[in-house]
């Protein structure tokens, strides 16, 4: 596991964009696993800017998103389908038919989740999976549990996740109570994982994820077992970790 400490959110976003752009350069038809939430927005803006400057070509890239709320319409501003168009897909030259997100409108959870796993396998698996970190340690929507769920599945969101995500909705009551999410096994099969974390409110859970025991009560702790994880986090998020051994911050050219 490599840990890059950045001074702030912007530098974290530039570093993340550097890594994603390098992945695309190395393998123009790569499969990117993408995330939603506030954390990756800056990285998506960076990638959009670099695309506008002819620095990144998404024409052969395929994407698979981690998750989607169950029961939400695709044109709902809070759907992850809408989020991805609004934050990335509308600004880069990715053919929309090469972008995949679980279909939250499919009421048949088993069929949707099985189909999504098949899609990822058909694409050849994920080359680089981008992750944010939930306040309770969730990755994708894999909530703390007594086991690590393996494949894409339907999950009941915890109160703390509903509470954390209500900022995007009119009220907590409007937050969907379920989601379809890649499983921990799906995520762990990615060849490379890029975890982004910012802000002091995530410092405690980041320490548990990176240094605590590997337990399903802290889903992100499973990343300790992956052989190719890059963590890019700002100094606030890393404030509870001794980063003297970590690769120090860098300056991005962009
Ligand atoms: C959401 C998403 C996750 C995301 C996490 C953190 O619920 N399902 O993929 O990483 O919560 O969100 P944020 O980046 O807004 O803190």
Task: Report on the architecture of this protein.
There is one protein chain. The protein has 254 residues and is an alpha/beta fold. It has a single domain, classed as 3-Layer(aba) Sandwich (Rossmann fold). 29% of the residues lie in helices and 17% in strands. It has a 7-stranded parallel sheet with strand order 1-10-9-6-2-3-5, with helices on both faces. Strands 4-8-7 form a 3-stranded antiparallel sheet, with helices on one face. Bound molecules: 2-amino-2-deoxy-6-O-phosphono-alpha-D-glucopyranose.
List the helices and strands and how they pair.
Blueprint: E1 2-6, H1 9-26, E2 31-34, H2 41-52, E3 62-65, E4 67-69, H3 80-87, E5 99-100, H4 109-122, E6 128-131, E7 153-156, H5 159-165, E8 178-181, H6 184-188, E9 192-197, H7 203-211, E10 229-234
Parallel strand pairs: 1-10, 2-3, 2-6, 3-5, 6-9, 9-10
Antiparallel strand pairs: 4-8, 7-8
Helix pairs in contact: 1-2
The structure holds 2-amino-2-deoxy-6-O-phosphono-alpha-D-glucopyranose.
The site of 2-amino-2-deoxy-6-O-phosphono-alpha-D-glucopyranose has 13 residues, from helix 5.
């Amino acid at each position: 596991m490599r840990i890059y400490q950045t001074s702030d959110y912007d530098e974290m976003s530039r570093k993340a964009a550097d890594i994603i752009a390098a992945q695309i350069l190395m393998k123009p038809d790569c499969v990117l696993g993408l995330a939603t939430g506030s954390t990756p927005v800056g990285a998506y803006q960076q990638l959009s800017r670099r695309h506008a400057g002819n620095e990144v070509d998404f024409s052969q890239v395929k994407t698979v998103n981690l998750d989607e709320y169950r029961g939400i319409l695709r044109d709902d501003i809070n759907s992850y389908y809408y989020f991805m168009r609004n934050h990335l897909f509308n600004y880069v030259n990715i053919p929309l038919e090469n972008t995949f997100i679980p279909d939250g409108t499919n009421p048949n959870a088993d069929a949707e989740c099985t189909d999504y796993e098949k899609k990822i396998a058909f694409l050849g698996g994920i080359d680089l999976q981008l992750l944010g970190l939930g306040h309770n340690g969730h990755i994708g929507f894999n909530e703390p549990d007594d086991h690590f769920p393996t494949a894409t599945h339907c999950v009941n969101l915890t109160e703390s996740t509903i509470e954390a995500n209500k900022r995007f909705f009119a009220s907590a009551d409007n937050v969907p109570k379920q989601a379809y999410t890649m499983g921990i096994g799906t995520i762990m099969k990615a060849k490379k994982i890029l975890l982004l974390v910012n802000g002091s409110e995530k410092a405690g859970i980041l320490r548990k994820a990176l240094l605590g025991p590997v337990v399903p009560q802290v889903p992100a702790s499973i990343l300790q077992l992956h052989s190719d994880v890059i963590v890019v986090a700002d100094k606030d998020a890393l404030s509870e970790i001794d980063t003297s051994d970590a690769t120090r911050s860098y300056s991005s050219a962009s």
